[in-house]
Amino acid sequence: MFGVEPVDGRPITNGASAAATLDAVHNGMASTTATASPVPKALDQTPDFSMDSELPVGDVFVHGSGECDQLGLGDGTLWRKKPTPVRGLLAARVHSVVCGAMHTMCLTTDGLLYSWGCNDDGALGRCSGPPESLTDCEPRPVPIAGAAHVKSIACGDNHTCALDSTGRVWAWGSYKDSSGHIGIMRFGREIVRKCHTPQIVQNLGVTIAISIGANHTIALGNDHRVRGWGSNATGQLGLNNRRGCQVMEEHISVEETTLSQLAAMQPGGKRVVLNRSSHPEGRRVIRICLRTGSWIDASSLTVDQAREHLAAGACALVLELPDRDVSIDEKRELLYPQEMDLTSIQEGCVTALFAACEGSFLVAGEAAYGCGLNGDGQVGVGYLSLGVPVPQRICQMAPEGWLGGSLQASFALSHGTVTAWGKAEECGLGLGPGSDPVLLPRAVGLPPMRTLRCGTHHAIACSEAGDVFFWGCGLSHQLGNRPRDSNNPYDKNEDPPDEIRPYMLSSKQLEQRYVLMADGGAQHTVELAWDGTYAELRELGVDMVMPDASPMLLGKRPAAKVMKKPADVKKTEAKAKSAKKPSVVQSTKGGAAKEQRSAIKRPAAAPNRSKK
What we know:
By secondary structure, the chain is mainly beta. Helices cover 7% and strands 37% of the residues.
């Protein structure tokens, strides 16, 4: 059973299901003032997504920080405030873009992969130069020896995976946690610190879908089983044996405690601790379980409120325990694929899976399940905890929808509606710093959306009209909101702000372009804008491309199907091809708040927990 959070934010403890929350969202009960009401694009032509044999293709645009080569614009480009075309991919027929924390991958209709960005741990799938032609700061092909046609790609903080048309999964890079490298499997038996060469992941069987978090990977087999590998520090692999999981909880029955043992963590505060002889320093109470089978989130209760619930019929307290020390040997056991615990799933077979930074989501029927990091409520189970170790039901979900999450917030796209939960100021609901976490899904005020993705601390949604909306952290220009209006750039020299409500991108480069999709990393964003053409998927192996080839040198190809390419689109492409090397955009950061969130050049593994 699940608690439900209504408009006023007070927890309901009647055991209502999370599906009711989504019904309330669609009926307007959980709406907020976070409404985006700009004028959408009025394009003469929009792409046709109904064709099975051909896909709309486009040009790649980037903005944000390039300090780790993640923009793909050359070694001298450290910043871009607004979307800038990646000239090296103008002829590549890209149909998909994916971002890691500090690197980017593109997939073409020929099944070719291109990568650029930080390659310290091999995430690009190729060795860095010399020779200088194999640089990290510009797109270069990823040679996968013996691979069939690549169907999909996924990126983590320091690793990348590809799924080919035969159902094999290829992996490269390295898995990490807060202690450093865990490693990666090579040749199916050898664990190495990092690997620049794509390797087949063994013991998976035929795989039909993959998804990647910051430092874990999950795969859905044609047997509808889910397997995962990598870090399980916060329960993101959903293992019933809790292997590799650092976060721990303890259940204490009411018969084992007394009301006098409950105290405030700080005088007058709302965090309640239980003082017992076994731990006189006190253990934080995070949930109160009721005899009805429901529970109460205790994160915002006072001592008196907690005592009232105990006296009124609670059956147990759930306490937060100190982190468990996990040995490197135990962590490395999880580099072999492990089967996720699916015993809580009641709606039949798993049909889709998605990874958040430190969590995992599954869809079965029209229900979604989640596990992993939950310090800000980002799993969506309705309470705060360090982690949710096995999948639990969170909300109703359309089979064709999307689920995912940044480090501290999560998002869902279902029937064109975006919902969010987790850290309040990153949900796009208009809630500022200091607001209570959003514990269950709430609707974000947006027009009908077609795609949704997120970076480490920001979210990106592409509308059915072809516009792009951003919210979250904007420190490194990843939101493209300076200047806010490209036609009135009075604020172009100001520091980029965070966005607590969706901001519709204003860009001269994209004002007449339909944006097919967009994705984000830790400090950058990549958009794929339709170029007015379609291309047929071809069964060409990636290994057929020479490592030093560029998209402009791959020889003659069959002409793509053209749909009356607009004149302004041609003009934009011509201008991009003839443009000089972009100048470096300097940015000064000031203020205590900025210093606390200052951009890091080459981050280590993503932290294993959110700030509380």
